[in-house]
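Objective 1b. Sequence-to-structure analysis of TF-B3 domain-containing protein.
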Amino acid sequence: MTSSGNWWWLTSRMNGRELSFKKKLSSTDLTRNLEIPNMALHLPDGNQTMRVLDQNGRLWHFKCPRRRGGRRCLTDQWRDFARTVTPRKGDILRFYFSAEEGVYFVELERRSIRLFGVTIYIERGL
């Protein structure tokens, strides 16, 4: 018998990638810098540049400096990523790290509903 906690651990380590953090995107995340949850794992120290691949294989360069108060956020090409990939408020962002490859991966899950067998993506502000 497997608990749901074990299931999460197994799925978060798929393909040699370990889940660093998962976040439901806010409007501030989309227009400014993405605020990183406190429990995030495997982030570089200081102001080092992270190489990040998106779902389409495009390479991005993010940094995650600490703000006053200790909170971290994604900066540098984050705004370019948000303009290009066009995530929406309420979408789920998953951020993974692969120690083998020394690279991060970002995965975006669109907020959607299924209605009469058709997937409908919910627009901003709804």
